[in-house]
Amino acid sequence: MMQEPIIEIVDVLEVDGVYRELSDPLSGGICVFVGTVREFTNNEEVVSLEFETYKTMALKEMRKIADQAIAKWQLNKVVIRHAVGVKGVEEPVVVIGASSGHRDACFAACRYMIDTLKETVPIWKKEIFKNKTVWVSAHP
Amino acid sequence: MELLLFGIAKDIVGESNIDLSDQSSVPQSVAELKLFLSAEYPDFQKLTSLAIAVNSEYAGDEVLLKSGDEIAIIPPVSGG
What pairs with residue B59 in β-bridges? Predict the structure, then answer.
């Protein structure tokens, strides 16, 4: 039986406990994707990233993504959790996880969920460099 | 009728919300709101895309705006 997906926006993203949240007797595979802050963008050194969100809408859009993935692949458990605020290099900013009977489903579902999150969920990322700040993807 | 602003939209306008009721001609639809924004704040025309949400759902150009709606400007998203 599919359990309610865990959908959250948090100030501090803890990734260590995600495995336990996804662990499930009917699952033979667990996939977890963690997005982290990279030090360089186009060879420029990033000091930090700052995330903000339209939270009520973001949670609704994240839930839609989870529901679509659950309908398409037979998933037993799903976690979509995103951080907001200022994050330094190497810090996690998003964790996506799924568990399923066989590995193909959770691999495909995680890929789908992170790709779709980046397209539809109202979360914005500002790159903070030493001398400037840039809203990512804002301009062509 | 309040308009919520996020990300670069907040920087372009210089506020985190605008009261549309104060405007001389209040936009009646999403299409009219986009025209209003482009005219009032030309920097919106430079963005990769511009979406509008009504009551926290993406809304097409044809959607009509009613008083009491929660309306938000959604500039290009960049989560993850």
Answer: B52
Listed residue (B2, B6, B1, B4) closest to B76, CA to CA: B6
Q: Using one digit for the tens of pLDDT, what is the confidence trace for A114-135?
A: 999 999 999 999 999 999 999 9
CA atoms in the 13 A half-sphere facing the CB of A110: 22
- Whether A60 contacts chain B with CB within 8 A: yes
Q: In this model, does residue A73 exceed pLDDT 60?
A: yes
CATH number at residue A33: 3.90.1170.40
Query: Distance (Å, rounded) from C-alpha A134 to C-alpha A138?
Result: 8
pLDDT score, position A1: 54
Number of domains in chain A: 1
CB-CB neighbors (< 8 A) of B6 in chain A: 52-54, 122, 124
